[in-house]
Amino acid sequence: MSASCSDSGCASSSEFNSPRWRRALWAALAVNAGMFAVELAAGVTADSRALMADALDFLGDAANYAISLGVAGLALGWRARAALFKGWTLIALGLWVLGSTVYAALSGASPDAGTMGVIGILALLANVGVALMLFRFRSGDANMRSVWICSRNDAIGNVAVVAAAAGVFGTGTAWPDLIVAGVLATLGLSGGYQIIRQARAELANEADPKHA
Prior knowledge:
- This protein is mostly helical and 212 residues long.
- Helices cover 79% and strands 0% of the residues.
- The radius of gyration is 18 Å and the shape is elongated.
- Residues 1-16 have low confidence and may be disordered.
């Protein structure tokens, strides 16, 4: 395994399997799984594409935290492969949200702004708490960084959902909801690309005999 560091920084080998890292992941997993159920139900009830997109993101993050728990303490190559999988998952979710947004734009349905606002604020509080827990791990390997990127993106996305709720209430149209859904999809695609790029670099570095 390479002894060099990626551009995003290094963490000690013991930190990858530290009790503090595992506790943070378990807490993040519980929060995201719970919020997925809450936000999906609210999204369907309110007919909000932004809430549905955010709910799907919660589900993806819950799965990603579970994967991170599974590879914690393993060699860099396995952590990088897990990060690579997570990166492609983000891209797939982003493409799904874009397609769903286009469909909603054609159907012309208008979401319930009140439900969007309440659930958006609840999701924001949940994600800010998770992001604060994971902040210290933002400069680790691709696997650690992918967890931080997911949490950061979620918090940003929730602010956008709350703004969309205000926009829907003020305009009486679905366009603010659809625009935010598109932004969330783009954010997911960008985060997925960042994770894949770093994971590939780590795999290439590990395969290089000069760094073996």
